[in-house]
Specification:
- By secondary structure, the chain is α+β, with helices and mostly antiparallel strands.
- 25% of the residues lie in helices and 33% in strands.
- It has seven helices and 20 strands.
- The chain has a five-stranded antiparallel sheet with strand order 5-4-3-2-14, with no helix packed on it. It has a four-stranded antiparallel sheet with strand order 1-20-19-18, with no helix packed on it.
- Strand 10 and strand 11 form a beta hairpin.
- The chain starts with a helix and ends with a helix.
Amino acid sequence: MKVNYMMKKIISISIITTVIFTNCSYIKKEKVKKEMQQYIEYKDLHEHQGTENYEIIKLYDKDFVVKEKLIENKQKIISLLGENEKDISRQKVDFFANVLDDKEYWYRTLQDATLWTGKYYRNWLLNGDNIKKNYLNPITYDEKKDMKSWLKKFSESYNKASYVYESSWNYYMKIDGNWNKFSYDEKLFTPETFDDKVYEKYPTKITPEEIRMIKIPEVFDNLLDNKTLQLVEYVEMDKQKSKGLNPISFSSGYYMFELHLPQGDVLKFRRYGAMGFNADMNIYQIPKELGGSDEVFFIEQLPRQTYPDKSFAGFYAIRPKNYKELPEYKSYSEKEKKN
């Protein structure tokens, strides 16, 4: 009798708890739904239609992670390297978000804009040349047999080179515009004869004239400081409080941003993030002194694997619809005509 009574009691408590939990969950969902309705104008960038005077250019879609963002300072272009699970795409983009060329080149970009691999290289970024180029071998047959002769040629070449790059014990030296490769030879050298002292005596180097690739300045914090970028609201969608042996508190949700643009428009967009609203997004601008414009913004999104259907990747540009009327673009166009 007592057992049946206790069982009924437990079942009753369980039902009450379930009802309370269900009601709480329903109330929370309705609250979130109501909050989201207030920000219906705030769209993910890959779905955004822009504003009256500004358009959004999709340089890489929501599934592409951008691995490289560099300015080629002499040609006044941007080098972008993006990849998803299936594809690799390297783009040349001008400072106004026009794609000039697009190739499937994954190579490492050196400071002089050479696209480098250990076996060959390309000058596509420098001058559009798509041909794979082999490294010159400056060592003669006789020099290969003698360590002193090899090191003498190595030292002479090092002093002549405008750029020296080292990888996996091999040296790559740019002399008169051509790349030479000095391969580490296990038959000729040992770790004792070709050791750290060699790398200390012959470090990598580059002359100022060869430097073409520089980082694009990040301006996220600056835009927040001067109120150009404003965080309007955070709508929490998921959270976890610390319990017992788990000291981690967790929260994720939509950050509602407003980007106040020079022509008076306000770009309202949202970004799903967690633990810091700028942790998964970067904003870049090309400085005017390099030929860029205050009216053009580049936004990079970094995905969170825990929220693949909400926290997207991608790389976008925000530019005026009349960007060709900008003084900076006209100046850029004139220089292009002369070249």
